[in-house]
Amino acid sequence: xxxxxxxxxxxxxxxxxxxxxxxxxxxxxxxxxxxxxxxxxxxxxxxxxxxxxxxxxxxxxxxxxxxxxxxxxxxxxxxxxxxxxxxxxxxxxxxxxxxxxxxxxxxxxxxxxxxxxxxxxxxxxxxxxxxxxxxxxxxxxxxxxxxxxxxxxxxxxxxxxxxxxxxxxxxxxxxxxxxxxxxxxxxxxxxxxxxxxxxxxxxxxxxxxxxxxxxxxxxxxxxxxxxxxxxxxxxxxxxxxxxxxxxxxxxxxxxxxxxxxxxxxxxxxxxxxxxxxxxxxxxxxxxxxxxxxxxxxxxxxxx
Length: 303
Hints:
- The chain is mainly α.
- Helix content is 78%, strand content 5%.
- It contains 14 helices and 2 strands, in the order H-H-H-H-H-H-E-E-H-H-H-H-H-H-H-H.
- A two-stranded antiparallel sheet has the order 1-2.
- Strand 1 (142-148) and strand 2 (153-159) form a beta hairpin.
- Helix 3 packs antiparallel against helix 7 (163-187), helix 3 crosses helix 8 and helix 5 (106-117) crosses helix 7 (163-187).
- Residues 145-152 have low confidence and may be disordered.
């Protein structure tokens, strides 16, 4: 793959995340987003164990340094437990297509956090990219409503989608952006698949604690018995916390974090064809134009 290893890995990550987004949206509506989160990480934990055993001769990433464990564990808690918990709930509330469009805010968030933690500087072009990205998202989620009162006609700006769902997806974008930066800081030259395993382990423990304290273990057992949902969880687990996360870390290991985040943000465009042909969603031209503008804004952000 030559010098484009990071860019190719980021492109594949976008494809993997498209598959996992649609899979987990469907599963989450059947068994609940919290249950999906824990089960998919448990599945990914065993997949990583087998793959890393044959790749590296180690079932667990015990060869990582204490510093790597610290930063990657923090990344797992922020990215998986906080970020993905919010994102997966947004799938249930507003659907994967709109949620992933809002997740296109991840690159500017990543760049801002990189500036704080890694010392990367934002340029004027970065700010232009932010404005264009926000414009594209606004085109999709906002609408004008006419309101008539006794004195005059007024136009009120509202959203076509649930405010709760939009805020959940935005929280997911923050979690993913911060998680990527923490991952890069902790990974260094360490194996990307083993680094992902550490993130999965800490994420799995985090969700297990949440389910234990909220007494939802009964719902987890019930979810495991839901065959159609489990098929979707299995599919999403392979393409999400295994392939998607591993290739995202491979991407940021071989190229700048912002560039990787930009390429990975094309999910809102990739998700439109399956949303139309597989799930028969009604996608209007405003949403398509908004998605294209959003991705264009993200691309400008790193010119």
